[in-house]
Automatic annotation (TrEMBL):
Pfam families: CarbopepD_reg_2, TonB_dep_Rec_b-barrel. Gene3D superfamilies: Carboxypeptidase-like, regulatory domain (2.60.40.1120), TonB-dependent receptor, beta-barrel domain (2.40.170.20). This is TonB-dependent receptor. It is found in: Cell outer membrane. Residues 1-21 form the signal peptide. GO terms for biological process: siderophore transmembrane transport. It comes from the Bacteria. The keyword Transcription does not apply. The keyword Membrane applies. It is a multi-pass membrane protein.
């Protein structure tokens, strides 16, 4: 670590930094997205300078190297702000959407993702990308789009987690306008908390995570809302059998725009009665109830040419319940996310900008279980207060981002309440944990020549934790733990040919927060706890090497191989019911290590009205715990040897657009009994190798059609038809074993599977308008 840190410091000292910015040429053509015709008289503005496109829609800018924001405005088209990092001369076509379509994004022909020659090591997903997939029952969703990326998988039907390059859901940092979202999912993973109308774009980092982000071992998903200004009232709304949502953008002044969006489901009155009727065969969940809501608010204010303020707030909640009649079991779960942030962007000089953000994140989770007169509840909560500030500096051969952050955490992992009959059990007071994270960071993107670019970064974090026991309403300090961590990262890009780039990344990450894994549950069980002396931070190293290529005919592809090693990862010793006695969690976990390696393959092609993408991942994910499986390596529960998907879109005519999505994956690993004994009238199971068996292969086909009913300058409407799980594949969420017969004669054992959703058709209606 010391050698690597010295190497990075040497890099920063040895490269001379000049303050005069070198100019490069950024040119292209602005085109109507629907007709492909050039647009003249488009106002192009940057750094206080303005020019218009000519009669052929062309523009040519002399612009400083580094990160730039370029604005495109026209009275008949939606305004657009392009944020782009430029190292060399670049030619790029910009596609604007006519205002009557009210799309808030533009399409750039060349994907600004890992396939270009720059040091971007993230996948970019825009609002427009979301509309291209069938979605769950005709509802587009960000997390479902992320799951189509190579190296990303979910845990199967009914599992809301994202497993990225072999990591667990708790190892993903999910941000929404700078605030942490601890559970980004609704409806067991079918919906995310990100209402698609409130999302501008999302950056997904799977490797080489930049130093400005708080430590996580697997990934960062950075989601942003639209912060642009509008010049008139705009909005859209949709209605389906599942939900209704609405989004409004209102200009207060020419420099101030506010937006609000709301989404509310009514599935308890529509879809669940149908599913419950189809579940009377007792091989599925017999009764389901579920609904959720989302509320977003944002305010964009331009104070001057050098100052912008963007404020956002989010509130969302879920309430879920199910019954298994065979076992007389009832389960209720509800969870809530709260987030708010205010961001101030100030341009000091032409090539230097400061961003300062104050944010709040809150999450509560309540789990209830009832069986035969006994009812238990577990409540959990976490709250964060976060301040960070960063300086972006664009120089001749360097693009530097440096700054600091401070986070104050408060955790109440598991507060239990148990009632037996009419008696409420006294389980003691709640355990409260507090933690502080103070960090400084620096990243430097260095241009080493025409074909070689380097990005090096370092984050230093000082972590403090204390535990408080709530005894007779008086908080008493129980223990304290503090540590200093260094997290280096490196990204290297070498352009082999004009459209072929070789990219290498290395990162060493530390994670100070733990999500307690309850292996027996496939439903959300979110119990967060900070690192302690008994449960030290998780640590990981990742290496990746990939080749990325673009062709002039619109075809792009990449192959990326990776290796990841993790230490101090945890497993909870018991099931969710073991959390019902307000136990000290750190005394009931196993600590171990993990190794993951794999290869990702991706290809995409656009041919006229048709475009398609194929993603495939082959990987191996092994864990080692001295207390599990005799200390021998075993597969992670969500190890997927094979994971692939295919998506396709076809513009049939001006009104009809068709889409399809197919996914296929190896089943989850689990442990099965290999023999059984009857002792004193009870059946005793003897289990085989840990996680040595597999659930059935997961696969599913979704289809959708979108029909444009009406389209005018001020109003448009669209009808969507979708079919989820077209051939009604019964993808089980878990297996159980049913015993039949008499202990005195013979007993037969049958394996049964619990499936969640059969084939489900849906219809939705969407309108867009402007004043």
């Amino acid at each position: 670590m010391l050698k690597f840190s010295s190497f990075i410091i040497f890099f920063f000292i040895s490269f001379s930094i000049k303050t005069n910015a070198q100019l490069v040429v950024f040119q292209g053509k602005v085109v109507d997205k629907t007709s492909n015709l050039p647009i003249s008289k488009v106002l192009v503005s940057f750094h206080g300078k303005k020019l218009y496109t000519n009669d052929d829609g062309k523009f040519r800018l002399l612009i400083a190297k580094g990160e730039n924001e370029i604005n495109f405005k026209h009275i008949s088209y939606n305004s657009f702000t392009l944020s782009i990092f430029i190292n060399n001369n670049i030619n790029k076509d910009i596609y604007l959407s006519p205002k009557e379509t009210l799309l808030e994004q533009v399409e750039i022909k060349k994907r600004i993702t890992k396939t270009d020659g720059r040091l971007n090591n993230f996948e970019l997903i825009t609002n427009e990308d979301l509309a291209k997939k069938p979605g769950f029952l005709a509802n587009p969703d960000l997390l479902n789009e992320i799951r189509t990326l190579p190296g990303v998988t979910n845990g199967g039907e009914g599992n809301s987690g994202l497993y990225i390059r072999g990591g667990s859901p708790g190892q993903n940092l999910v941000l929404f306008n700078h605030s942490t979202i601890y559970n980004p999912s609704h409806l067991l993973g079918f919906f995310s908390v990100f209402n698609s109308t409130a999302v501008r774009d999302a950056k997904v980092f799977k490797s080489g995570i930049p130093s400005q982000y708080t430590g996580r071992l697997s990934s960062v998903i950075d989601v942003s809302s639209d912060a642009s200004l509008v010049d008139s009232l705009q909005g859209e709304a949709s209605l389906s059998i599942l939900s209704a949502d609405a989004n409004i953008a209102l200009p207060i002044t020419s420099n101030w725009t506010v937006r609000t969006s709301i989404r509310k489901t009514f599935m308890n009155q529509s879809i669940w009665p149908i599913v419950n009727k189809l579940s009377k065969d007792r091989s599925s969940i017999n009764h389901l109830e579920y609904d959720f809501y989302d509320l977003n608010f944002s305010s964009s204010l331009v104070l001057s040419t050098k100052d912008k303020i963007f404020a956002t707030a989010y509130a969302g909640g879920d309430k879920f319940g199910f019954e298994l009649e065979r076992f007389g079991v009832g389960n209720t779960i509800d969870w809530k996310n709260r987030a708010a942030s205010i961001d101030w962007q100030h341009q000091i000089v032409k090539n230097a900008t400061v961003n300062t953000t104050l944010s709040y994140a809150g999450y509560t989770f309540n789990f209830g279980l009832a069986q035969e007169g006994t009812a238990g509840k577990i409540n959990s909560a976490i709250a964060d207060y976060d301040l960070k500030s960063s300086l972006k500096l664009s120089l001749k051969k360097h693009f530097i981002k440096t700054g600091f952050s401070y986070v104050r955490h408060r955790f109440v992992p598991n507060t239990a309440d148990v009632t037996v009959g009419n008696v409420n059990l006294d389980l003691g007071g709640a355990n409260i944990y507090k933690a502080n994270e103070s960090a400084i960071f620096i990243n430097d993107a260095i241009n080493l020549g025409a074909n070689l670019s380097l990005n090096v970064g370092l984050r230093a974090t000082y972590y403090q934790q204390s535990k408080l026991s709530n005894v007779d309403r008086a908080e008493q300090k129980d223990s304290e733990y503090d540590k200093l961590f260094l997290e280096p990262n490196l990204n290297l890009a070498y352009q082999i040919a004009k459209s072929t780039t070789l990219k290498f990344s290395f990162s060493k990450n530390t994670q100070t927060l733990h999500l307690i894994p309850v292996a027996a549950s496939n439903f959300p069980v979110d119990f967060w706890i900070p690192s302690t002396q008994e449960m030290p931070p998780e640590k990981g190293i990742q290496l990746s090497l990939g080749m990325f290529k673009n062709w002039d005919n619109g075809f792009e592809a990449y192959v990326d191989v990776y290796y990841k090693k993790m230490n101090n990862i945890i497993e909870f010793n018991g099931g969710v019911t073991n959390l019902l006695d307000n136990l000290t969690i750190e005394d009931h976990v196993f600590s171990g290590s993990g190794k993951i390696y794999g290869a990702e393959f991706f290809a995409k092609k656009s041919i006229g009205k048709f475009d398609a993408a194929v993603g495939y991942t082959i990987s191996k994910n092994r864990r080692i715990f001295s207390e599990i499986n005799g200390g021998r390596p075993f597969p992670f529960k969500y190890d997927r040897t094979h994971d692939g998907n295919v998506s396709a879109n076809y513009q049939l005519n001006k009104r009809w657009k068709l889409s399809a999505y197919f996914t296929y994956a190896t089943g989850n690993a689990y442990t099965v009994p290999i023999s059984r004994y009857i002792i004193s009238g009870s059946i005793i199971n003897e289990y085989g190798e840990f996680n040595a068996s597999r659930m059935p292969v997961y696969h599913r086909l979704d289809l959708a059609g979108h029909f444009q009913i009406k389209k005018t300058r001020r109003f448009s409407s669209e009808l969507s038809l979708a079919i989820y799980n077209v051939y009604s594949r019964k993808n089980p969420i878990f297996d159980y074993f049913q015993f039949n017969g008499d202990f005195k004669t013979s007993v037969s054992v049958q394996k049964k599977s619990i499936a969640l959703l059969p084939i489900l058709p849906a219809i939705s209606y969407k309108i867009s308008f402007r004043k």
